[in-house]
Please model this.
Amino acid sequence: MRSQDGLGIQGRQRELQERIKRLIIDQRLPPGAALPTESELMERLGVSRNSVREALKALQAMGIVEIRHGFGTYVGAMSLAPMTEGLSFRTVAGHYRGEDSLLQLLQLREAIETGLMARVVAGSRERSAELSALVAQMREEAAEGEVRAETDRAFHAALYAGLGNGLLSEVLDAFWDAFHRVRTDLAEPLQDPMTTWRQHAEILAALEAGDAHRAEQAVRRHFDNVRERLRSTAPEVSTQTPHFDDASVTSVSPIPPQRS
Ligand SMILES: [Zn+2]
Model:
């Protein structure tokens, strides 16, 4: 059905969502700030309560607003969680259709991480102690048989945190999440934990030597290794049951996180 303004119901909903987003921008509302009440929005935007509610629900699904029942509506955290969700789902669905979706995601991470190494090396001096501590911790964990994924993640996060680009850190975090939330046959064979430690120690050594080229090579070798493990489980149209390591999707037992 088309109204006089020529927009269908969906078009009008979409337009309403845009107007609410515009209101957040115009009023410079930060995450966590309260939005005008439902009644105020109805009056200001000249639409029905139902339309306002529907628009807010759609914006909540995108993480743009947060509806706290009984309290009101607030500007959302604007996190990349919805992107991570979509990326994880797309990757696992693609993998089980026989596409090399995990490899593609890995290539994306590799391109970004290696591409940044020159700048990381230039500004890594003040993070050297933190990175050293993480590498030492990896060594201890490796001696005990397994480098924890959290330690690995903390190392990569510390590398790029020095660049002071919040968006970059969040995007890399989202890629990591998506990659590690996908559980596949990739779980085997696990990398020798001493190799994991050595590869990170080499990245650190290159940083400490201020050698951007060597650092880039070290990161590339680190990714080569993950890639090899991915190749050893080259995708075919799989008949296996896909797993998310997310209890809300399937109630499988806890899945060991992958290292990279
Ligand atoms: Zn790593």
Summary: The beta strands are 65-68, 72-75, 182-183, 243-244.
